[in-house]
Amino acid sequence: DIGSERYTFNFTIRDSPTYFINVQSWGREEYIRSLSESFRVGDCVTIENPLIQSKEAEREEKFNPVTPSCYKLLLSENHSVVKTSLCYETDTRLLPLLHLPVKDPQDYYSLGDIVANGQSLNGRILNVLAAVMSVSQ
């Protein structure tokens, strides 16, 4: 609808140590809010009826994990469904994937590196691997 607001929600899924893909969804606020609250990091999901699109690597991988695929999944509010499942009970091979980062271990900067080299890193987009101690409003 022309003039209506659209919202977006992006995430990455994986089903093996080497294969993972970015998922992008667009839609009304209610749809995106419901989708984003329907699962958490580490949940198993089944995605039904996604649209498969070629990704524009230079544009999209600036703010999303670089994936080995040249495609992305696009979720449609009217056609796609994301369902959580208890797949760990049936496929224990997925459990080790919870702790694998989607980035090459050599492609991260530590917070110490950023503090020490901040001047030379100014204006660059970096990958940071850090632990979150707390989250508040």
Q: Could you explain the architecture of this structure?
A:
Pfam families: OB_MEIOB_N. Keywords: DNA-binding. GO terms for molecular function: single-stranded DNA 3'-5' DNA exonuclease activity; single-stranded DNA binding. InterPro entries: MEIOB, OB_MEIOB_N. With about 140 residues, the chain is of the alpha+beta class. It has a domain at about 5-95: OB fold (Dihydrolipoamide Acetyltransferase, E2P) (Beta Barrel). It has 4 helices and 6 strands, in the order E-E-H-E-E-H-E-E-H-H. Strand 1 and strand 2 (about 20-25) form a beta hairpin. The two termini are about 35 Å apart. The model has no long low-confidence stretch (mean pLDDT about 85).
Question: What is shown here, in short?
Answer:
This protein has a domain at 7-93: OB fold (Dihydrolipoamide Acetyltransferase, E2P), CATH 2.40.50. It has 4 helices and 6 strands, in the order ββαββαββαα.
